[in-house]
Model the fold of this input.
Amino acid sequence: MISVALIEDNRLVREGIAALLNQTADFKVVAACSSGDPALLRDAQPQVILLDVGLWDDDSLRVAETVRNEFPTSRVIIMDLLPVQEDIVDFVNAGVAGFILKDATFEDLVRTIRHVADGVHVLPPQMTSSLFTQIASDAVTRSRESALESVRMTSREREVIDLIGEGLSNKEIALRLNIATHTVKSHVRNVMEKLALHTRLQIAAFAHKEAAR
Done:
């Protein structure tokens, strides 16, 4: 049995992945939370930790480093939409063992977890079918309302969208809103995820379209 902890601040995604993994014979989700609280991980002692790269109120790189220092027997897999080369290098240096794209299939997620649990390092594969499709289908049977709630923008995310529309960089947005740059990155990733966008230019185009309404 492979014990898994899931750190993901999107409740729909967190509950969806946990439900799918718990339906798989040799997996057990021992923790599912929205931040990398060391106390939760200490109690769970998972073999593998699935870590979302764009946490709302935490720094995923810091969480990965904490796991390396405090939980050396746990192995971390980063979940991302579009991994940036510099981010991959930073996370590998922090001891991360694997990467999985959020548009991967569930079968590839399971395969990645098994490989990492066996000590193999896994780089992000390029996939075409969507893990989110299975999560969404599973969620609809449980709560259509929660699925709709998950795509609503927070007021902060709307601010970030508007500032990207003005052409500001992440550092400039951080200064304007008086928040950390890594927090801006998290907001940008969340916006991309919710709106199914892939680049800042697409976010800017969305912002201009909304402003014109």
Notes: The chain has eleven helices and five strands. The beta strands are 2-7, 27-33, 48-52, 75-80, 98-101. The two ends are 53 Å apart (CA to CA). Residues 97 and 120 are 7 Å apart (CA to CA).
